[in-house]
Amino acid sequence: MPWKKVCSLNDLEKDQIAEFDVQGVLVAVVRGENQPVVIPPMCPHLEEPLCEGVCDGRTLTCHKHLWQWDLETGNPMGLAQKPLKRYDSKVEGDTLFALIDQEILYDYE
Ligand code: FES
């Protein structure tokens, strides 16, 4: 499975959350304190866009019901009841790549 280019690091400010279309798969990228994280664009709670949320360096917060996740691990914090799924990613030079074999989707009940 080949690495796919997601974006240039120059496309993102610190603590910014942005969406990118990677060869037909929409992803969100969160640039916190460390390496950017590549995630599905919708909240695992009720399918709200996470790009409208807030990143404070180490934590991502969904704007809708304030579920939060640790960006390093994807583990839920506070009110959140599901982990944040992530695509494997790496940085080479100023380019962010991710392994996107198939779209990651959450189970919404
Ligand atoms: S939709 Fe994101 S916390 Fe509820």
UniProtKB/TrEMBL annotation:
GO terms for molecular function: 2 iron, 2 sulfur cluster binding; metal ion binding. Pfam families: Rieske. The keyword Cell membrane does not apply. The keyword Transmembrane helix does not apply. Residues 4-98 form the Rieske domain. Keywords: 2Fe-2S, Iron, Iron-sulfur, Metal-binding. InterPro entries: Rieske_2Fe-2S, Rieske_2Fe-2S_sf. It comes from the Bacteria. This is Rieske 2Fe-2S domain-containing protein. It comes from Hydrogenophaga aromaticivorans. The lineage of its organism: Bacteria, Pseudomonadati, Pseudomonadota, Betaproteobacteria, Burkholderiales.
